[in-house]
Every structure is written in structure tokens, then in C-alpha cells.
Amino acid sequence: MPQHVRTNVPYILNTTTVTSREVTWWKNYTAERYTSEPPSLYLSLSAVQREVESRRQEDWERERGEYERWQAALMTSREVAEEQAQEVLQNVLPAHIYASFKQVGYLIVPSKMHEGFFYRLFHTWDTVYTQIWYNGKEVGGACLQPREWLPATDRLLVQYLLLVGDESQFLAIANLWTVHSEPVFQWMKRRV
Amino acid sequence: MGILRVLSSRGDDRAYWGSHLALAPKRIDEERAVVEAERIFAQERAKGGTAFAITKDQPHKRIDKFDVEAEQIVIVPMVRGG
User: Fold this and answer.
1) Where are the domains of chain B?
2) For residue range A76-104, what is the model confidence (pLDDT) as tens digits?
3) What is the pTM of this model?
4) Where are the domains of chain A?
5) CB pairs under 8 A between A and B
6) Chain B residues close to A166, C-beta within 8 Å
7) Neighboring chain B residues of A97 at a CB cutoff of 8 Å
8) Which residues pair with A88 in a beta bridge?
């Protein structure tokens, strides 16, 4: 082999004239890492950089894999919990109310404490909404949450049971807000 | 009668007694089943849970003591303003 050759080694080196000793080292290096000493400072630095980059990539891929597996397991357990919560809702609600909920997608709970008011409850995959209606229009909202994580359907059931079974406790605990700047909730809170 | 349902991150956790005892995953005699349900009821109430008795064709009502005649008892965990 001539003293100086051009080879098809990777991008950093392929425009550089390298010695046959360097080519031999490169072949050894790619065959089995670190079995031979790098012949020059230039190659040594690039090898270290490549090793660092490769390990960083491996770490990142391992962490991403762990995160994806963890997230998949979490989502599966939450989907199972959500299915069970739907079964609970079906068993706890009276049949006609459950049928109406499945049809329209929300629950209506008339207020026992405040004549003319009613609550409209519905949920998305992770959030429960409670609207307060009066005289045919939405006048406000309420937010109340369990202290531990529950599936959305269970959280809907919590709000429903509190409104039906103990409305005064619901109004005392929930955060209430208005949507049309109407002072109805100050009035409601006073009468709790 | 009855099923005790404690709402949890798994959907619900259940205890059975009376006529629903056949649904229980483990064989347990009737008296022990009631005692066990009462124990869970007291434990969840002590944690701040609120209990509701669910009986067919009757409005749901809040209860403070274990009602052995209830068809279902649902315990919701402690709540706070969101």
C-alpha cells in the first residue's frame, strides 16, 4: 500500500489524506472498538466524540423506551379504570337517567335548595364540567375534585351524588363562578 | 342486600354482603361479610369519604352509618374545590 492513500472512511476523514497506519487503525477500530490505540490526536478526538455521541444516543433511546412503556402501562390501567367506572355509573344511576345520559351526553340535576336552578354535568376524557343554569340560560359553573385521581366517569358520579344527596356540602366546598357577571353565587353561598 | 363500592383509581373497590354475597370473589360467611363491609365503611369515612345509600326507586341519600338494608352503598373520597 502506498504511503498516502484516499479511502472511503466516513465524512470527517474522506477528504483528508491519511497514512496507511491510520487506515489500519480505522479498520481495527471499526471491527472491535478500543482494541488498538489511535495513531493521532486528530483521530483520537473524533473517536471520543463519536463514542460520546453514540452513548448519548443509546441513553436517550433507552430512556425514551422506558418512558413509552411506562406511559403505555399507565394509559392501559386508566382505560381499564374508566371502563369499570362506566359500569359503576350504570349500576348507580336510575335506569331512565342513565339512558338519558347515554343519549344526550350530560346529566341534569335540579337544585333542591334554590328554586329554578339546575346543574348540568358532563365530562370529556379527563375533565368534568358542571354548569349552573337558571331561567333557561347558563349563569355559572362549579368545580370540585376528589383529592385522589379518579377516572372522569367516577368524578362525574362524585359530583352527581353530592348534588343529589348533599347539595349544601357541594356548594360549601366547590369553587363557583359566574359567566355573565351575575351575582347569583354570592346569594347562593349566603343561603348555604 | 348489598354492595359497598369505594370509588378509587381502579374505578371502584367492592365488598359484598347479603344477597349479593355470591358475587364475592372469595367465599366468606354472611356474618363476616357484613362485619368486613362495616369495617371498610368506617375506615373510608375516617379518611374523609362521604357515603351514599343507593336503593332502587328511591332518591340517593347521604348516610353516616352503615346501612345493612341498603342495596348499594357508594363511598366517594374526600373532595376539595377545584
Assistant:
1) 3-76
2) 888 889 999 999 999 999 999 999 999 99
3) 0.70
4) 4-64, 95-191
5) 94
6) 50, 62
7) none
8) none
